[in-house]
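WARN no homologs supplied; continuing
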Amino acid sequence: MRPRSRLAYLTWWLSVLVFTSLLFLIIPTFAADKPASAQSCSDATPHALPQDQGLIGLKLELLRLRTTGRFMYTDAHPDDEDGSLLALESRGRGITSLLMTLNRGEGGQNRMGSNLFDVLGVLRTLELLSADDYYGSAQRFSRVADFGFSKTAEETFSKWGGHEIPLSDMVRVIREFHPDVIASRFGGTSRDGHGNHQASGILSHEAFRAAGDANRFPDLTREGFFAWQPKKLYTDGFGSRQDYSISIDTGTQDSLLGMSYAQFARQGLKHQLSQGAGDWGDIPAGPRPTFYKLADSAIASIPAGTKESDLFEGVDTTLQGLSKKLGISDSQASFLRPGLLALQTKVDEATAAIAQQPADAAKPLLDGLQLTNQLIEQSRQSLMSPETKAALLTNLETKACEFQRAANLALGLDFEVSVDAPVASNAEDAFKAVPGQSFEVRAMVTYTDPVTVNPDEVKLSVPPEWSVTAGKHFTILTGGHRITHVLFRVTVSENAEYTRPYWHRDDPETEAVNKIDDPRYVTLPLPPPPVQGRVSYKLGELTGTETAVAQVKFKNTAGVERSASLAVAPATSVAVEPGTQVIPVSLQGSTKTSVAIHNNVDGSAESNLKLQVPHGWRVEPPTQRVRFDQSNNVSNFQVYPSHLSESRSQLKADLNYRGKNYTEGYTVVTRDDLRVFYYYQPAIQRVSAVDVRLPANLRVGYIMGAGDDIPTVMKQLGVDVTVIPAQQLGSADLSRYSTIVLGINAYTTPPEVREKNQRLLDYVSNGGTMIVQYNQDPEEFNGGHYTPYPAELSHDRVTVEQAPVEILAPQDPIFHFPNQITRRDFDGWVQERGLYFMHSWDPRFVPLLATGDPGEDPLRGGLLEAKYGKGTYIYTGYAFFRQLPAGVPGAVRLFVNLISAGHESK
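OK structure emitted
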């Protein structure tokens, strides 16, 4: 059999693909009753892993075919999920599973770099999709955004404009997916911690009942999302042995996976590196109980307090019991019960066949597909209520998908669709479809006798107004396999939509609800890829199909070839670098602004680039000519600000290419372990002019932790900053620096900072100033005893950015040199005051500021100063990593004073 390792890449995007009437379907479209965004075959069960291929994948599909159970899990952020439970239900019991995550974690911290806000949300979406591959789960999101840590559900709902937006999205997904059982990671109480967590639990309770109430959200009903009442709602006990309804052991070994469900899920969770998953250890073998409590039930026969053995207890999830589960009588659908019995017979035949020869299972599986499609058509024509019909069709269409996937696995059928383009050296340079351009696509199907393929039945589906022309085709015989090649020429429409998020926020620093640019995709992780292929094949008189997303090839960071879904992109991407600029109002002369241009078209055509500046400012040169004979160009401009005062301005880049203006650019978001996607931003630079004084002759060394943009901002101000690689900490001459600053999470990320901490303390003792910013792991930090005097780091934080700040030591030079700091310098902060404050400390530390969230006592551990030997040691949990890139004037002045501490007389 031909190796199938490439299929892992070819199917990456299938977990997010939703079939519409514009795409080829494995089964007929239910356009009259089924919303365009309803779940599809490829969305129902991701299969990007080796465990989803070959004989193991076939056995898993047969397990799924025996059950109609549908399970939905709800939580707030990526990495909240109980992936172990999802893996057990999906992979261990064949249950069709879906994870509903309210937001994309865009307000969190990034343990892998300096990207924050919405681009971080795209990254975490990709990370969660990779984790979902292991869980065996489909994925959905709501429109609300993570706006940073919140302490109460009330604050969360106030930011989200109340309950209705996320509740509507959750109800939409329930009515689309038709789960029998819902489990919520959170209960909706203060025990959940984060206000987003509490809100998730509250909304899960509300959605459980609202989804079944036809009077709620009538707009959804008009869209075709009819009322559906799940049977049971559980809330998570996560380790609690008190007041639970069910204990589930996810440590059970699975023979197909070769490990336990908890261990397998942990492999998926480790893809969430921006959350710090790289530091999470493996799970040892052995029992791993998790506890859930029955919070609500539509099954009257299960009294409160009942101890259950299974989440689906009281729900008939057998294939033959589907009519009973949905309450469909023989008078409503006389065809259903005998049809389901016939399907069960085919599943039994296929199961028996694979014990002898897996390929022999294909015929009963394709028989089952044919029978299922007949049931689907009969159900469409029936007189059942719209609500019942929608639920029945959702279940039957899932079975059709499973029959088809199982048949293809039994036959060893392989179908690939790829763009005929050179292998790019990286993801950024990978081929992209550009509006108005044409390109070649090759579809290749590999099969063995007795399967037959008619090349005319190999087709491509593309968006409206695109065109496809089939070209030559040929079949070769190699190693007992037939490989049919079909070539196509695809022309992209002039107004083709770019591959980009379907949501956005105009101001991520203040907005907490996403605007939806394309309602067709609401709740989906990402919009579907634009080009897909379908092949229909014959096995005797039976017909099967296989689909594949068009792929492009490139090399990853290790030089290994990999694939990604074809994307649509503009002819040129325009980005102003840096995206933010913080300059002192005392600036004399100019600043440099660069415009980076990435071309997706070949040729030597020239374009005209302009940089628009505020009135009264000057830019040199006024325009530049840019040639398109290379993929990447950087044009530099000198900008001469005029009459500066403390204010905010914008610079805008505008590239005219062949009569069209390009004013935005994209960032390729990926890692070697993730899919590839794109984040778009307008080609602007946000300029903050700040009234700030700088000390003379100050040299700063900056040691990065997880990554932040503070060194960039300090350089823009005119501070002499050198980034010291952590790997050089043991040999670098630290005495060259007046002040050393440790970036965020410096004790968590590079091990050298922990290992060489004594050298840093010696630097302070010898007369240097060191500033330590927050670290995300208080337990590890406290265990390392990294401070010069005893101090205990905590999880304490102040989430309200407007929280009043009291200056506790007004005479301290930090508030006077080189800038006078007053309470007004704490106006205009973004997202939060600070995080990971010290909880207790040695008397030799002096607390300098106090602040607290409304209704709470002020915290004094956010800014501590101590004299150590001849030098100065400062700990700060205040969120300078957010404030400085945002150009918050008071935060800039205070940070300059901090790096100047101990150098007042120099």
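The first strand starts at residue 70 and ends at 75.
OK
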